[in-house]
Amino acid sequence: MTKVGVIGTGYVGLTLACLADYNNEIIFVGRSQDKIVNLKNGILPIFEKGLDEVVVRNLKRNLIDATTDYRRLDDTEIIFVCVGTPSADDGSIELSQIKSAAESLGNLLKQSGDYKTIVVKSTVVPGTTKDVVMPILEKYSGKKAGRDFGLCMNPEFLREGEGVYDFINPDKVVIGGYDEKSSSILMKLYGFYKKEVPRIVTNLNTAEMIKYAQNAMLASRISFINEIANVCEKFGVDVYEVSHAMGLDSRIGPKFLNAGAGFGGSCFPKDVKALLATAKSAGIRSILLEAILEVNKTQPYRMVDLAKETLGRIGGKTIAILGLAFKADTDDMREASSVPIINALLKEGASIKVYDPQAMENAKKIFGNSITYCSSKEECIAQADLSMFITDWAEFKKFDLTKIKSPIIDGRRVFNPSVVLQHGLVYKGIGWKNN
Ligand code: UGA
């Protein structure tokens, strides 16, 4: 059993609760007293499938605790830094939380007699752990990394909504170590993974870069297929038929080729921007990274164009929006495509009704009383002139099409277009033969 500290109680930090299932003891450190009290009672600040059960189960086993006081980390051996690294105005990442955590950890290391390994898990651009975090730790502790304490960078590849599954079943584990001892301590903690799971042990900068390169690659596939989708529409070609065939080429593979209303979330947009800013600061102009973002910025408006093509004038019409979260199985609306779409429709003078199985509370914070909130998908489509699907929730896929009377605009290929057309409904969608 290892005593593990976790700083930060967002998606990344909280998912480390899974370590308790492997008999490690976890103590979370957060800034908000309310969140910490809730966490101690098994109430999480986020919706993440299956995670509340992991937390509750291990609270009962006394393997999870939470505090606002860094000093409680004194008897931990490994401390993960999982604080936010939001986008600054120029696209680079904002490091104030990570700097403040490093300062507090430096003070802790100063007091503590035991050897501890600090692990940066927040997504940070190459050079951050070595050139920003390490000097702060050394300054405030008066100790030396690699001699008096360990230092690692350990990126996460968790998908929101599938975080627990991805934590338990990773494709790989990447450990960037300042020195061999640091890496081997973290490697030991991950000893519970099957031996078939590849372990990549590398240096700090490389571990940081792997995370960004991977997210940028995935985002580029989405922007690529979205651009192809827009061309397909003009030639009566179904992009899903194209991507299916492309994906059968073993060099390409099928994943992340679903065309839609654009990618969102707290990761892809932020990470591509940060990588672009990092390249720029190194004197490199990345035309490809710029294009990934540019395509993604315009893609949601393709939905608005389809609405116009269907209804003619949008002003005065009632439009049902089904799906607000940036993807299914989360309540997260950060950078969600639904936001620019709704704003554009409102600007055109449409009345908007919305429904999402999880994101209604977050939507209220964004749109206030400028839109109507419905308590079911059926209520949402009732009397609507148009129904727009922006998130591919499972419950939408099972929609009883006989209940829908309005034309459908499908932003995530929620439906099989042929089935919708068989029901006598008007169907338009991203990458579908709309003309
Ligand atoms: C992403 C990565 O998939 C994770 O591996 C990574 O750890 C995480 O970012 C992170 O950096 O922390 P996430 O943002 O949770 O995970 O969501 P994804 O499932 O990757 O989807 C991102 C967006 O892309 C969603 O808006 C989704 O609708 C869109 N998408 C995804 C498409 O438009 N088409 C696709 O084929 C796949």
Task: Describe the secondary-structure layout.
Elements: E1 3-7, H1 11-15, E2 25-29, H2 33-40, H3 51-60, E3 64-67, E4 78-81, H4 96-111, E5 117-120, H5 128-141, E6 150-153, H6 163-168, E7 173-177, H7 180-189, E8 199-202, H8 204-234, H9 239-247, H10 268-281, H11 287-311, E9 318-322, H12 338-347, E10 351-355, H13 360-367, E11 372-373, H14 377-381, E12 386-389, H15 394-397, E13 408-410, H16 417-422, E14 427-429
Parallel strand pairs: 1-2, 1-4, 2-3, 4-5, 5-6, 7-8, 9-10, 9-12, 10-11, 12-13, 13-14
Antiparallel strand pairs: 6-7
Helix pairs in contact: 4-5, 8-10, 8-11, 10-11, 11-12
This protein binds uridine-5'-diphosphate-glucuronic acid (UGA).
Notes on the protein architecture:
- The protein is of the alpha/beta class and 435 residues long.
- Helices cover 42% and strands 13% of the residues.
- The protein contains 16 helices and 14 strands.
- The relative contact order is 0.09.
- The structure holds uridine-5'-diphosphate-glucuronic acid.
- The site of uridine-5'-diphosphate-glucuronic acid (UGA) has 21 residues, from helix 8 and helix 10.
Brief descriptors of the model:
42% helix, 14 strands, single chain, 435 residues, binds uridine-5'-diphosphate-glucuronic acid, 13% strand, eight-stranded mixed beta sheet, six-stranded parallel beta sheet
